[in-house]
TrEMBL record:
It comes from Natronosalvus hydrolyticus. InterPro entries: Aldolase_TIM, DAHP1/KDSA, KDO8P_synthase. The keyword Cytoplasm applies. Belongs to the KdsA family. The lineage of its organism: Archaea, Methanobacteriati, Methanobacteriota, Stenosarchaea group, Halobacteria. This is 3-deoxy-8-phosphooctulonate synthase. The gene is kdsA. Gene3D superfamilies: Aldolase class I (3.20.20.70). Coiled coil: none annotated.
Length: 272
């Protein structure tokens, strides 16, 4: 599947990265992170799609930071495209936002909590852009077939499916690696979200917790199973992050992970 900037998505080809900070905290933060991520991926010849959110509409608390809003957020993402020639991806939360967001981004993302919302899915499909759908924590991998069918009803078949764990009791997620093969059997590129998969939703009462030390382990497992892409939220200083502070990966440690992930991906796909 062709995505953007000569980037393609295939479960059989070299993996690509979707990476960036969870939410836009400032223009400076986004541009710094985009520049360093581009330098890292250029050194290792890995395709990068930059990700950040202009609004986090599903935060645990009413007082949690949500982002700069759509207009300002899209301006910042446009700067990433213009200055670093990177494709960008972001999520949206109501159907009415789809066209305006699609004017800037190269790929649309459907948040996990909205992955069954028919109007969201068809609005995304109508833009004609590639779409990355986060599998809801409440959905089975087999249930993503209905999600694909909703989007394809618009005539848009450019769909990727993203695994990010399933609810396991209260405030915890578990990743069933069988889901990767099940979703590949639906005929779509599969992306593995390695940082949201180690989240503990609402575990801190007014915010989510998690444990980033397991993110690399899960990424290695997913790459060993063979996926099209890895999604990772990366932050210059995760401890100060305004969203997902417990799970974002430190920017200054990310290059070592990328090198390791590329080696695993190459070993698995060269053996096929």
């Amino acid at each position: 599947m062709e995505l953007s900037n000569n980037i393609s998505a295939s479960n059989e080809a070299q993996f690509f990265l979707i990476a960036g900070p969870c939410v836009i905290e400032s223009e400076e933060q986004v541009l710094e992170t985009a520049r360093e991520l581009k330098e890292i991926t250029d050194r290792h010849d890995i395709d990068l799609i930059f990700k950040s959110s202009f609004d986090k509409a599903n935060r645990s608390s009413i007082s949690s930071y949500r982002g700069p809003g759509m207009e300002r957020g899209l301006e910042i993402l446009q700067r990433v495209k213009d200055e670093y020639e990177l494709p960008v991806i972001t999520d949206f939360h109501v159907p009415e936002q789809a066209d305006q967001v699609a004017d800037v981004v190269d790929i649309l993302q459907i948040p996990a909590f909205l992955s069954r919302q028919t109007d969201i899915l068809t609005a995304a499909g109508d833009t004609g852009l590639p779409i990355n759908v986060k599998k809801g924590q409440f959905l089975s991998a087999e249930g993503m077939d209905n999600v694909v069918n909703k989007i394809e009803s618009t005539g848009n078949e450019r769909v990727m499916l993203c695994e990010r764990g399933a609810m396991f009791g209260y405030n915890n997620l578990v990743v069933d690696m069988r889901n990767l093969d099940i979703m590949k059997d639906l005929g779509k590129p599969v992306v593995f979200d390695t940082t949201h998969s180690v989240q503990r939703p609402g575990a801190r009462g007014d915010s989510s917790g998690g444990d980033r030390r397991f993110a690399s382990t899960l990424a290695r497992a997913a790459l060993g199973a063979g996926v099209a892409g890895i999604f990772a939220e990366v932050h210059p200083d995760p401890s100060s992050a305004k969203c997902d502070a417990a799970t974002q990966l430190p920017l200054d440690e990310f290059e070592s992970l990328v090198k390791q992930w590329k080696a695993i991906d190459a070993t698995v796909k060269n053996d096929q």
